[in-house]
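Predict the 3D structure for this chain.
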Amino acid sequence: MPKVDQKQHVNLYQKSLLRRSLVHSARPGAAYVPFIGDGDLALAHYAGAFAIYGADIDQARVDTGRERLPGHTIIKADCNAWPFPGLPEPFAVADFDAYSEPYPSFRAFWEQAPKTDPLVLIFTDGHRQGIIRTSWLHHPSGEKSHLETLRERRTAYNFYWQRIVKPWFTKFVQPWRVVRTKFYLRGQMIYWGAVLEEPK
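Done. Predicted structure below.
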């Protein structure tokens, strides 16, 4: 497996383990990697198995990603919108490794991208930080709620995955079914992924 830059990724071992534990469920297809950065996670986990379509707002990182991933498609684009309109190739994997806010990118992908069945999705979510620092809860839907009491903030913080993210996600992707999820916490960050199937 190609070496991943430890300096760019905190707690790299768990990040890679999360991807390895889910990607084996994917069928052949394309991998969508917004926020691709220097392309090292894509190189380590998707190159050779998938056609990679990546994007980043930083041109220097796009250039590095193109050097590391020749033959794949890496573009400069706003990752909160869908950057590959009209693309017919279905996506088997989408990896939303944003620093804190993966959900606008995911919602655009879900609305517009062709998808394989099953589908593997991976997320990096930093919204628990805001619950403690600002008392505002940023929902995956894009809505915001002000948490007035310490009890509300503690509940939202401690049960963010179980009571906020997972129920929203399960409902949002219907009629697709969530057949597997996996998550872990690192400080105030949550890293998670899911395998989806279309109803038969």
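Residues 36 and 56 are 6 Å apart (CA to CA).
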